[in-house]
Design goal:
Elements: H1 2-10, H2 17-23, H3 27-33, H4 39-60, H5 66-76, H6 79-88, H7 99-103, H8 110-128, H9 130-151, H10 157-165, E1 173-181, E2 188-195, E3 198-205, H11 208-224
Antiparallel strand pairs: 1-2, 2-3
Helix pairs in contact: 2-8, 4-5, 4-8, 4-9, 5-9, 6-8, 8-9, 10-11
Length: 225
């Protein structure tokens, strides 16, 4: 019954439910029960994920250069993105974990959750074919890919700001994260940038680095004014 709820969550009904069980079986549980873990499915899923995302980026964002496509793919095909997918679909609630992982709250560990997403992708591919796996991947990563393509050629605003401020000599430039909001899987950070203790601007971002970059960008715009 539990797996039926999970199938509703990922919007795919398995013909062979044992494949899905295998995909959700962590090594710790497999060792205790002397059964096969999801490691082999994870291996296959990793390759499928990379191929599908590469194909999607190549066809939809053909204006990007090869190096830029590689950067976009690296940005979205990573543990952080897969962890967000797992949290979105409550993967942790359906994982088969050994006692040690249950005790240490393994269902929240990013590495375990990310690996399980790859394994489920492989299980969907084996059970329903490439188009089924592709639909799940693109549905969950299209927005991340879109954001990554917009940022791939982004100037390093922090470097530009530093060059402008130091044109007449050394100055003290500081970045501080002054606020963070939201759950662990969807944090928002607010940063401020100061020059010689004077506040220049603030910025927002989904990571500390992006918030600082946004603050630098806003500071540059303020300097133009």
């Amino acid at each position: 019954m539990e797996l039926e709820r999970f199938e509703e969550e990922i919007k795919y009904k398995f013909k062979n439910i044992e494949l899905l069980k295998n995909a959700l079986t962590h090594t710790s549980y497999a060792y205790e029960k002397n059964i096969e873990s999801n490691e082999k499915l994870e291996f296959l899923g990793d390759s499928i994920l990379e191929f599908i995302s590469s194909d999607y980026i190549y066809n939809k964002y053909s204006f990007l250069k090869e190096g830029e496509m590689t950067k976009v793919r690296a940005t979205v095909v990573c543990e952080k993105s897969l962890y967000k997918i797992a949290k979105k679909h409550d993967f942790g609630e359906y994982l088969y974990l050994g006692k040690s992982e249950i005790y240490t709250n393994g269902k929240e560990r990013p590495a375990i959750l990310a690996d399980s997403v790859e394994a489920v992708i492989a299980a969907m591919y084996i059970d329903g074919g490439l188009e089924i796996a592709k639909k799940f991947i693109i549905t969950n990563l299209a927005e991340e890919i879109e954001i990554a393509t917009k940022n791939v050629g982004q100037k390093d605003y922090k470097t530009v700001l530093q060059e402008k401020l130091q044109v007449h000599g050394d100055v003290k430039i500081e970045y501080d994260i002054i606020k963070e909001t939201g759950p662990d899987h969807d944090k928002q950070f607010e940063a401020e940038v100061k020059c010689n203790e004077k506040l220049l601007a603030k910025g927002m971002g989904s990571s500390k680095k992006r918030a600082e970059m946004d603050a630098a960008k806003n500071a540059l715009e303020n300097l133009k004014k």
